[in-house]
Amino acid sequence: MTSREPRLEIEYCTQCRWLMRAAWTAQELLTTFTTDLGEVALVPGVGGVFEVRLGAETIWSRKAEGGFPEPAQLKRLIRDRIAPGRSLGHSDGHKSGTVSGSRAESDG
């Protein structure tokens, strides 16, 4: 099996039951970056981990950042690395890193 580039990994804590949060995050990213991402992998972990990695680079770490990423913020971070000239539409308008009505805030 060959790896498709760029490869994005979402490592989530199985002890914390964050699979649904990780899956929802993956769905959001795959919907936004339909042809820009080669692969999105969900990686089971332990110890409160929730990390988003693009190749060897950690884009978001729950422990380092003190919480979970807002979807628009995460999309901007990824876009800046894989498609810098691309517009994200409404996600570009929320420079504070918050999105009202975020479903990811309700789980976990």
Automatic annotation (TrEMBL):
Secreted: is it a keyword of this entry? Answer: no
Query: Is this entry keyworded Hydrolase?
Result: no
Keywords per UniProt: Redox-active center
Listed Basic and acidic residues bias regions: 83-95
For the region Disordered, what residue ranges are annotated?
83-108
Please give the superkingdom of this protein's source.
Bacteria
A Pfam family matched in the record: Rdx
Compositional bias (Polar residues) spans?
Answer: 97-108
Family matches, as InterPro entries: Selenoprotein_Rdx-typ (IPR011893), Thioredoxin-like_sf (IPR036249)
What is the protein's name according to its record?
A: Selenoprotein W-related protein
From what organism does this protein derive?
A: Actinoplanes italicus
